[in-house]
Structure formats: C-alpha cells, structure tokens
Amino acid sequence: RGIRFGGGSGTTSVDYSTIASGGTQQDFGTFRGGEQNMGAASPTRGLLARGNDGGLQAGVDFITIASTGNAQVYGDLTVARYGGASASSSTRAVFAGGWASPLTNTIDYFTIATTGNATTFGDLSVARYSMSNCGASDNIRAIFMGGHRNPNPATDVVDYITFATQGDAADFGDLDVAKSAGSAVSNGHGGLG
User: Fold this and answer.
1) Rg of the chain on CA atoms, in Å
2) Closest Cα to residue 192, out of 59, 115, 114, 91?
3) What would the pLDDT profile of 103-139 be if each residue is shown by its tens digit?
4) pTM assigned to the model
5) pLDDT in tens, 51-72
6) Which residue, among 181, 177, 188, has the nearest Cα to 150 in the 3D structure?
7) Half-sphere exposure for 38 (CA within 13 Å, toward CB)
8) What torsion do the CA atoms of 11, 33, 97, 163 make, to the nearest 10 degrees?
9) Smallest Cα–Cα separation from 134: which of 108, 98, 176, 103?
C-alpha cells in the first residue's frame, strides 16, 4: 500500500492506494492534521510527524498499514518542526532536521513497534529544512539529501546514519548541485530490502 497524509493546512484526510493495481486513492481515515510533515514506516506501521498545523507541531501519529481507520497518537518529537527528512529500517524511524524557528540539526528516532516520545539519535552535519522528506534508506543506513539553510542558500550536503547505532550523521558525499525541496525513494525502505 501507498498511503498519503493530509496535503494542506487544515487537511486531516488519510488516503491509500494498492500499489500493485493502481487506481484512485481510497479513504483510509483521518489524522490530527498537518502539512510539510515527515513520514516513515516499517512493513506494519506508518508514522507521521505532523509538521505544521497552525504552528509548529511535535506530535507523531501512526496507522497500521494493513487495515484502515483513524490514526492514533504515537508520541512527540524532541523538537517541534516541519520540512525535515525521514527514513526507516524495519525497526527504527528517524526524523532529521527541519524548521524549528530557527533551523534544527536534531535527528530523533523511534522504535516503530512501540509508542512513546522520540529519543535523540544525534545531529546532522548541517542544520537545514525544506528537505521535503528527502531521506532514503535500506535496513542498515539512512541518507539525508540537500535542503535549505535559511537565510543562506540550498546545500549539496548528503549525510548518513547507521540505524543500529546512535550518533551524529557522517558525510556521505554531495548532490550534483545544491538543491532543496526534493523527494527521495529507495528499493529497501522500511527494512523491505
């Protein structure tokens, strides 16, 4: 399944598609609302950091992917923010950076199978936002690409973390050009590969 949360200020809808068949998205349920949010998943659960909903939000909601129904409260990030990046292994979800008035370089993590508040994982090498979920992962590593360093320009920085450990992100390399507000995918996210 592919699942989409919200899509604008005040929007609380959650919709889903069956990836193998395509077609129009179907109603899944609702969540507490938010935009410029961050999402991560295991094969069982989807987590959504709410981002901005009439102000910065620290709240994280979750759904059980195989069913439908309204999202439930999962816990809180250590820093309320929007526009960061996120990624997941089969056991951990990480949320990195974002706009927290001002920028933050904080990386938080959750153990997906449980509920509760985030624990600090470490820091990005460069505080930034407008990463628009520009994180990708396999079951071992997550990478966080680009972003904006307001008031400075976009960055070409690519950082990585290793899920099984905690600590600051390390340099992975550079994007071909500095950019922000992108999206990212991988063939092994959520520990699927």
Assistant:
1) 15
2) 91
3) 999 999 999 999 999 999 999 999 999 886 678 898 8
4) 0.92
5) 998 899 999 999 999 999 999 9
6) 181
7) 38
8) -110
9) 98
